[in-house]
Amino acid sequence: MLIKPTAELHDSFLAAHQEWSEEHQDGSGVEHARDIQDPEAFREWIAALERQETVPLKKGYVTCSYYWLVEDREFLGAIALRHELNDYLLNFGGHVGYSIRPSERGRGLATQALRELLPLAEQRGLDRILLTCDVENYGSQKVIERCGGKLEDVRAKTMRYWIDL
């Protein structure tokens, strides 16, 4: 189930973060966190994620809604919905970023998260969304296609799919 990020899952998020190690955690926004180990800094980061729904993080960014995929109070992954596209996102980033913690991959969780996100995108007034993935990311290609993604083109090794809502 998708929920808004919450400080109540601090320990579970930290455990997942350790699993990722140096791997980028698409859709989590963690790259902008000051210190996720510290509980107070973690709460501040959660509040910053919430603010991004109405105020872009910084110049050149767009507003964004963050969600966590949770099962039995365990953090399983993250997915983000960017509310609009700038030039970079139109070519390489798309409306959506997501990642599933390594120990939970292969269970269809990314597909579940994306399916749950689609009506939320529609509620934001979007009539279609762009998703991108690397040409070698076969798992993500399958997720996007299972959710109705239609390949438009490939730009600089980035596959660009649209999903009509």
TrEMBL record:
CDD domains: NAT_SF (cd04301). InterPro entries: Acyl_CoA_acyltransferase, GNAT_dom. It comes from the Bacteria. PROSITE patterns: GNAT. GO terms for molecular function: acyltransferase activity, transferring groups other than amino-acyl groups. Residues 1-165 form the N-acetyltransferase domain. Pfam families: Acetyltransf_3 (PF13302). This is N-acetyltransferase domain-containing protein. It comes from Corynebacterium phocae.
